[in-house]
Amino acid sequence: MPHKLVPQPKLIFEKSSPGRVGCNLPVADTPEVDLKKALGPTRQSLHLPEVSELELIRHFTNLSHINYGIETGFYPLGSCTMKYNPKINERTAMIPGFTHIHPMQPADTVPGALEVLAQVQEFLCEICGFDSICLQPLAGAHGELTCLMLIRAYHESRGEGATRRVVLAPDSAHGTNPASAAMVGYTVKTIPTDASGGCDMAALTTALDETVAAFMVTNPSTLGLFETQIEEICRLVHEAGGQVFCDGANMNAMVGTTRPGDHGFDCMHLNLHKTFSTPHGGGGPGCGAIGLKAHLEPFQPVPVVIRNKEGKVELDDRRPHSIGRVSAYFGQFLMEVRALTYLSAYGKERMADISRHAVLNANYVKARLKDVLPAAHDRPCMHECVLTAQEYKKGGVRALDISKRLIDYGFHPPTNYFPLIVPEAIMIEPTETECKETLDAFCDALIAICEEARTNPDLLHDAPTTQIVGRLDEASAVKNLDVRWRAPQKVGV
Amino acid sequence: MNVPTDLKYTKSHEWVRIEGDVATIGITDHAQSELGDVVFLDLPEVGRALQQEETFGSVESVKTVSDLYAPIAGEVIETNAALSGQSELVNTDPYQGGWIVKLRIADPAQAEGLLSPEDYQGVIG
Amino acid sequence: MLDTIGVETIDDLFVEIPDSLKFKGELNLPSALNEYQLYLKMALLARQNLDATKADWYLGAGLYDRYIPASVAAVISRGEFLTSYTPYQPELSQGYLQTIYEFQSMIAELYGMDVANASMYDGSTSMAEAAIMASGVTGRHKIVISEAVHPHYRQVLDTYCWANGLHVEVIRHNNGATTDFSTVDDQAACVIVGYPNFFGVIEDLDAARTAARKAGALFIVAADPTAMALLKPPGEFDADIVVGEGQPLGVAMGYGGPLVGLFACKQEYVRRIPGRIVGRTHDAQGRSGFVMTLRTREQDIRREKATSNICTNEALMALATTVYMIALGKNGLQSVATSTVRNTQYAREKLSSAGGKIKFPGNVFGEFVLELPKPADEVQRRLIDQNIMAGLPLGPYYKGLDHCLLVAVTEVRTKDQIDRYAAALAEVLK
Hints:
The structure holds 3 protein chains of 3 kinds.
Chain A: H1 35-39, H2 53-65, H3 87-92, H4 96-99, H5 111-128, E1 132-134, H6 140-157, E2 166-170, H7 176-183, E3 187-191, H8 201-207, E4 212-218, H9 230-239, E5 243-248, H10 260-263, E6 267-270, H11 272-275, E7 290-292, E8 304-307, E9 313-316, H12 333-368, E10 385-388, H13 399-408, E11 415-416, E12 425-428, H14 436-455, H15 458-461, H16 474-479
Parallel strand pairs in A: 2-3, 2-4, 4-5, 5-6
Antiparallel strand pairs in A: 1-7, 6-7, 8-9, 10-12, 11-12
Helix pairs in contact in A: 5-12, 6-7, 12-14
Chain B: E1 8-9, E2 14-19, E3 22-27, H1 29-35, E4 38-42, E5 49-50, E6 55-61, E7 65-69, E8 74-79, H2 89-92, E9 101-105, H3 117-124
Antiparallel strand pairs in B: 1-2, 2-3, 3-9, 4-6, 5-8, 6-7, 8-9
Chain C: H1 2-5, H2 35-47, E1 56-57, H3 70-76, H4 79-82, H5 94-111, E2 115-116, H6 123-138, E3 142-146, H7 151-164, E4 167-171, E5 188-195, H8 205-215, E6 218-223, E7 241-245, E8 261-265, E9 278-282, E10 288-292, H9 299-302, H10 315-353, E11 357-358, E12 367-371, H11 376-384, E13 388-389, E14 392-393, E15 404-408, H12 415-429
Parallel strand pairs in C: 1-13, 3-4, 3-5, 5-6, 6-7
Antiparallel strand pairs in C: 2-8, 7-8, 9-10, 11-12, 12-15, 14-15
Helix pairs in contact in C: 3-10, 5-10, 6-7, 10-12
């Protein structure tokens, strides 16, 4: 492992010593005031750590050594698109003309910021094949939620809001799909996947009636397979009066190759932190743009960023049918700066390389592993492959054990147990930014681990053994809930 | 898997012990084994009237949640207080110390429709 | 690689996409740029913006121009943090998980609450989720909120409540403060007030709490975290849920994103919290470690029955606020808050003697409403010409406040700058 051995870290609170400050701060040169008089009731105590800047930096540097990022090593987490985040994106996002502007300052004092938003929208419209893009949603799930709100507003505008109360989602869907639908008051019905890994068309046809508001489809599906009947799916749903939402988590398979707007989708969400390389940041910020066909545009959140006939970018909040705001300002602006930098680097010439190399890498991994971990469906995969470790289960080895053992070989595990419909699923998404040597080293490790699973399964059960902790007791974490540090109570005098 | 012969069962993996007009309900050995370490139970208030097959609570392990269904209609007369501190009883002693709720049976005839131990054995294979 | 796969070209891998759906021709996009061109392009766009390094900044309204220690960027740009995913594999994520535990600890402490989650998208969505949670706890469907809460937050609340079938009732402000709680009745799921409120006024939380308790509604406070260094925290007023925008704690204004939503509540509601929570536990050898916990609340497990659809949080921004709070510590944060109060008091005095009038009587923390003899947007324009971002004109947000400017004065302003603002204002009002 690239990690050096570090001692069990202390909490920052345990390093605190009264009076220390870790920053040379500005102090007011205006007259002093009587705080009680100015404010009213003030607080009695405040327990925050007190450390020097050096102690602070060492604390976080040492913690970073026990944390794994894309920059540490291969991160083949399926469904998450852990591609490299180019450094130039970080650099452009730190320019003061972007970091030090306020979303409520007059729009004509920030033409450069509006231009960033408009250009990101224009890139994404063209790549995804939609009529407009809205950048206000703050994460993928937030984008899904916004799309379902738009669909509901659309049905309400046609007098069908009260009857269309059902949202369909495949059994392979991300959990956010049903959860988002529930937040818009919809009842969720599940559509099964057929034996070949596609949508069960008979079940869909049966489910479609005048109560259906929308069908949420992930394309390529979470099985890493292109939904080959997508045109027919969209036609059937439209015929029944429903809308079709595209979960864009897997857009990396399609960039420059095929456009969801052309498949017949009415709206989609994108994860810019997946497909367009804004950093994942340890679980956020996400960045959840949505794409809309023209009939949903009147309902989109305000303000709308538009380019007028003279080419100037403006904010339009005169939208009487808008659902309102879904977040306080303009979305994850500094992430849009990174995304625009990334998109501009690829341009029209290189854009398709993203999907082509992502799909190549995934199929290569699938082919190399086929004898030890067969694919759940024997079809060409898109940007990720879903394999099954079912044959090891009878020997007492689970997919999770294989994944945990990968840690001892220096790799981040793939996604396990998702999609839910594949037994002992191992979902691998290598992304286009990895080279053949890395993929080979990873496949060699998995092949070796599968051999260990047959010959010495305890190596897998006990894994990982190379990290600062082994598998943690998650049941105890729930039963003996400890989610914060508290200052020790002073006892006695 | 342990399937005691003196109990009745449901397809949703509850067991029922009927004593007079009181039904004691828990989840089966098979169910606890599928769930893994139980860490929390969401239980109904005493006095609540349940319909047959109504969801009355849930049982949580670290990574899954399973709803609890009333095998039979009735009023909740007691819930197992020991589970709030020792939810693991559902795993270690599912048919005795790990019981979940007691109902005053509303319609004794409903008990006829419950699964026999042999039928339940067939359900779990 | 193609040999191993058993195909001849990359195109062969795309056979499953119907030909009619393949994109043909050229994308209507600009040409690819090299790194030098990229920086130049973005720098030219950035240059067109009037930013807070070019003007004296008094525009706050929920996002503030505060000093961010250099250590913040140094830590959050470390690739081990920046490029990691959600810590679903705890053995490889102990570093990040520990920082989140420290974040939760400090946010709970700052707000005087039992527990805090690992962060929400922003202050507005955090507040909307709190309202939905209150509805879940009480089984009621009416959300009562003070008009003196950020107008954008209220718009987001309206959208979320429409979707969730909840009804919002607004309490009109009374001279800048929230005093009339008559709509907080036995239908109300919660009452929400700002602390300080949007006008900078420090609300009487005792009165709001009393009204909520009487009605059996939850008491929710949207609180500015910097002010918490000095003010009696909402937890000491028995608040049930406290939410806020964490941006003032070391996150750039960044044209409003990414921000970080703060969310804290009483222990009894911990199983209803939306979003991620990190807890401490141990491994088989007894070594202490951290994991994401109470996972069954979340969407990937409970799906349509989850407490929220939220998946990502704002981990990187939460890390920034963690570093900020540690860099400042107790003394530093109190110093920032005290300097803010001093500068604000001085600006109130100077600007009111320059022709403005203090609009509302209540105590304020770092912001106040200044009434002008002219329309506020016109005054704002004239001062922008002198590189003074004078504040937020309130006309678009509140009826009858067309002549009012919301002025924020943080710790980084100096006496000279405030004097210059007063002189320029006097000139404009002449």
